[in-house]
Amino acid sequence: MSTKEKVSEEVLVLEAVGHNHEIVLYNDDVNTFDHVIETLMAVCNHTAEQAEQCAIIVHYKGQCTVKTGAYEELVPQCSALLDAGLSAEIV
Question: 21: which residues sit within 8 A by CB, 6+ positions away?
Fold first, then answer.
């Protein structure tokens, strides 16, 4: 006679629920592509390719999310973008 044993396990799943904010960069007629790219690389730690893609999206679409994260982490980065003459906000 064979006996099959059923094992029931309770699994507790913890999800990190946090609201991510975004830094949105807006197009302007003042800054050059090079300035935008260099600033994104310096402030947001973008690679050259990421920064260039963001600059192109901003140019053609009018805006682009350039960074996501916790609000407290984004504030100094957004401030640095603004200090560099770019138009950005945290949403």
Answer: 68, 69, 70, 71, 74, 90, 91
